[in-house]
Amino acid sequence: MTLTEIITQRRNVKEFKADPVDFEQIKAMLQTATMAPNHKMTEPWEILVIGEETRQKLNHKPNFGNAPLVLAFLSLRGQNAIEREENLMTSSCFVQNFLLLAHEQGIATRWASLGMQPANREIMGVSDDYDVIGVFGIGYPVEWPEAKPRTAIEEKIRFSS
Ligand SMILES: Cc1cc2nc3c(=O)[nH]c(=O)nc-3n(C[C@H](O)[C@H](O)[C@H](O)COP(=O)(O)O)c2cc1C
Predict the structure, then answer these.
(1) Domains of the chain, CATH where assigned
(2) I need a surface site. Which of 9, 55, 80, 139 has the fewest CB within 10 A?
(3) Cβ of 113 below 6 Å from ligand 1
(4) pLDDT at 31
């Protein structure tokens, strides 16, 4: 698979097969994802492996697509607003690396943003030191959805003087 194929074929998957994923394989992908661009090498990401009890309490209605593994990706807030923003950018690069690496290995992901809600942060035991980028169902997909069309990039390019 070329990088272009990985980027264009990755999907936010709705439903997962019951087959488990190999956590060592996931860990290796997370390690590779740490090669993301990183301002001042703060490595602001953290990964929370969501256990069954927490998962039930989160009460995600599609239950993360019945994924065999659920991970929350956190980003350290840092000392001030700029650091927090830069850390979020860095952590998002890390997350995207992971999503693409997963796709390369035939593993699908489903993004849920419920981790931003205070009640869900509490359920997950996330302190005020962290932002929650997302909570992700991870596993083998029942099917890969069709691509959602994107706007032609010409409509997004502007030129400054
Ligand atoms: C910040 C962010 C939050 C998202 N939250 C959700 C979510 O709560 N539920 C969901 O189904 N998808 C969520 N998504 C995934 C998007 O819906 C998905 O990426 C988009 O529909 C494009 O589909 P694709 O990823 O398959 O190309 C989120 C994506 C981002 C970047």
Answers:
(1) 19-142 (3.40.109.10)
(2) 80
(3) yes
(4) 98
